[in-house]
């Protein structure tokens, strides 16, 4: 099985991923800021499943701490799976969101995900095996008045991951892009929009979301929408996206822009 790395592992989806993968027999490398929570989780999983857990206490929004984690991953040849799950959100208009908060979203949601992916991909290519799971969001293709920055960061994750999938075509490396909708994690409290104000029927349990992601992985999915039941919606969107790209390749202005 090798070692699975999970970022944002001290709560929410990351904590559940850790439990599910420990049960599957993976050794774990858990990354998060809160040492106390990581230590409790590591002790629990080691005792329950007999696997090895290594904790990397790190704030991925800080360049120096992110680089330490990236260096650790570059040097660990036992890694077979990386889940880029860590994320942060402030849901408010851009003009009411501090530059510090905006940069934090970019640093965690984009830079950390990119650099940690970069850290493991060379060894995956060298061995011609490995799995990368990047957690994006349905807000990566849909923006709200309060989600310009967050949606922008998740839009990057979507396009970056799709590009990586093209790069590894023909290899035995599997890269899965995940677009969850509303999920019961602490990110909502951090964002300033508590779960209590949302339509409760739209909120997915963290366990259900993780189980859906891993079921999609087991089925070989490249693109997983945990809460979308109608596969035709996904296929139609992907087909329209490709056709729009193809329709742009004319070299001429569209007729509506040409004066008669």
Structure commentary:
The chain is α/β, with parallel strands linked by helices and 260 residues long. It has one domain: NAD(P)-binding Rossmann-like Domain (Rossmann fold, 3-Layer(aba) Sandwich), CATH 3.40.50.720. It contains eight helices and seven strands. Strands 3-2-1-4-5-6-7 form a seven-stranded parallel sheet, with helices on both faces. Helix 1 runs parallel beside helix 2, helix 3 runs parallel beside helix 4 and helix 4 packs parallel to helix 5.
Keywords:
260 residues; Rossmann fold; seven-stranded parallel sheet; globular
How are the elements arranged and paired?
Layout: E1 3-7, H1 12-24, E2 27-32, H2 35-49, E3 53-57, H3 63-74, E4 79-84, H4 99-127, E5 130-135, H5 148-167, E6 173-178, H6 187-191, H7 206-218, E7 223-224, H8 231-247
Parallel strand pairs: 1-2, 1-4, 2-3, 4-5, 5-6, 6-7
Helix pairs in contact: 1-2, 1-7, 3-4, 4-5
Identify the CATH class.
Alpha Beta
What percentage of amino acids are in beta strands?
Answer: 5-15%
Order of helices and strands: EHEHEHEHEHEHHEH
Q: What structural class do helix, strand and pairing data support?
A: alpha/beta
Short synopsis of the structure:
α1 (12-24) runs parallel beside α2 and α4 runs parallel beside α5 (148-167).
């Amino acid at each position: 099985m090798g070692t699975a790395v999970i970022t944002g592992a001290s709560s929410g989806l990351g904590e559940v991923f850790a439990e599910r993968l420990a049960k599957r027999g993976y050794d774990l490398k858990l990354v998060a800021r809160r040492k106390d929570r990581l230590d409790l989780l590591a002790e629990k999983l080691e005792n329950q499943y007999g696997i090895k857990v290594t904790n990397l206490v790190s704030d991925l929004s800080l360049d120096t701490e992110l680089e330490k984690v990236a260096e650790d991953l570059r040097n660990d040849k036992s890694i077979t799976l990386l889940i880029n799950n860590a994320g942060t959100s402030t849901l408010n208009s851009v003009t009411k969101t501090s530059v510090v908060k905006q940069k934090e979203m970019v640093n965690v949601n984009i830079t950390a995900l990119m650099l940690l992916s970069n850290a493991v991909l060379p060894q995956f290519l060298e061995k011609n095996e490995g799995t990368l799971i990047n957690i994006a969001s349905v807000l990566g293709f849909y923006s709200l008045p309060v989600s310009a920055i967050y949606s922008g960061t998740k839009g990057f994750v979507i396009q970056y991951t799709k590009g990586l999938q093209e790069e590894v075509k023909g290899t035995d490396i599997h890269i899965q892009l995940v677009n969850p909708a509303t999920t019961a994690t602490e990110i909502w409290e951090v964002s300033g929009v508590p779960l209590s104000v949302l339509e409760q029927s739209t909120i997915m349990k963290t366990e259900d979301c993780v189980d859906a992601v891993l079921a999609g992985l087991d089925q070989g999915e490249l693109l997983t929408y945990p809460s979308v039941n109608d596969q035709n919606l996904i296929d139609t969107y992907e087909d329209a996206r490709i056709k729009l790209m193809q329709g742009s390749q004319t070299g001429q202005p569209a007729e509506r822009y040409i004066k008669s």
